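Standup notes, protein team

Yesterday: finished cleaning the Lysinibacillus piscis set.
Today: GGDEF domain-containing protein structure.
Blockers: none.

Input for GGDEF domain-containing protein:
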Amino acid sequence: MEKKIKELYDIQLALNATTILAITDAAGRITYANQKFCDISQYTEDELVGKTHRVINSGYHPSSFFKNMWNTISQGKTWREEICNRAKDGSIYWVDTTIVPSCNEHGKPYQYISIRHDITEKKRLAFELEHRLIYDAVTGLPNNVFLQRAVEGKIQQQEPFYLIKINIDDFKSYNESLGAEHADQILKRIGERLTTFLKEPSFLLTRTYGDEFVLLCKIHPNHIDTYIQSLFQLFETPIFHVDSDYYVTFCVGAVYYPDNATTFNNLIYHVNVAIEEAKRNGKNTYTIFQNEMLSNTKKNLQLKNKLYKAIQAKSFMMYYQPQWMAQGNLTGFEALVRWHDEEWGFISPAEFIPLAERTGLITPLGYVLFEQMLKDIETLQKAVGTHITISFNLSLRQFFDAQLITRLLDLCALYHIPPHIIKIEITERVATSNIEHVILIIQKLRDIGMDVELDDYGTGFSGLRYLTDFPINCIKIDQSFIEKYLTSVKNKAIVDSMIHVAHELGCTTIAEGIETKEQLQHLIEQGCDSFQGYLLGRPQPASYYEQHELTFDDH
């Protein structure tokens, strides 16, 4: 007997040393609390005995939680769960709890023994991991995991809602020019401004990807256009960061539940379709998803497959539009791509070039077109009987290809074409992407003998800075300015000033889109150096010039 008593005493010592113990009567009043219980709850045993566990109730659990507990233990069954309690000083702690009923000979509980272990640190780590899982580290906003849970909850409750995706235009340029740390700070400020746009507490703003935010909101379909337009107005004032203003533009896509989709994955797919449609329409635009857009998406997929095969087969043609000097001399041609598909016929560059840029096919396409141009140069030289230059437009992706200079030189060597007869055209979009790198590549192109022209000048926001910083030879005045040159006083002033400033900086000028003799004559009088446009010759294949003589006098 003494041995048994000692064994029970040893067990009690072990439990008291490692376990939070409490015993209650059948009504739940505490009859015993060990020191571990007193330590974690910060109550003395005298303060606990005679009380129920309501004294440490944190309010975290719903009443149904404890109702389930009592239903279980009152039947003489053991119950186990994790419980959040509140200590005397108001702090929260968590315990892994097992309640074992002590039953009389009739199976009715007369007391309950609670065995608990402190799991506060474990729960803190779990909450921290959960927070990292569902919240974005940069903006502090909920992330895509959180969004999916929220959307699926709305779907389960069959509540109508809109998903509005916001994709920031050209955010890559922020990372490249400012660095990731400053770009993240701008993202954070964008998130803060978007947060002020939440009209109702039930609206949810999330950051789901690097340059994308998604709004989950309950808006009537009749008001969605107005809501999105006010979103654009929110960013009419710039984001201020480190003594500088940054104007933010973006594309927006919107999808409606339940009309457009009934699952989270389909809603995301359809809002992405809407975003892509908005991007095709230009920057700072929005598109509300319509079911017929899916057929456009299917067509784009088919076009991508055709484009890939056409690149492999090199089944593109190059057309050449003549460029003339003011004195009437043919100075060269601009190379322009044409694509004829056996099934679809001629496919416009305006349709397949943006697709090639979005899919990354623009780089291999660019080299295929450059090679085709090199093949045609001998034909063009013989046809016009004079030395000419050929202008070739490099895309943004191809311009930043690490192998660009090597590939261009290798192709020129393969076809025995001296690089100095090639003029590389870059757009303002290329010029403003990564200034230091752009200057480096332009200089490398100049070093191998190629001139560099700034194409579509005046359509972007580069101003005069890039004329002074970049080692370019020529600027091309965009046809949108030439079109209104004689009908708009402002346009004429802009074009005339472009010509003057370019000359002062040592650059030549070429006006594109010349369609009337009056435009041509006035531009000659202003000192513009070269011209191209339908008045002076439409784009034609190289073979055309073998059979047709080109003269400036006809114009």
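Follow-up from PR in the comments: The radius of gyration is 36 Å.
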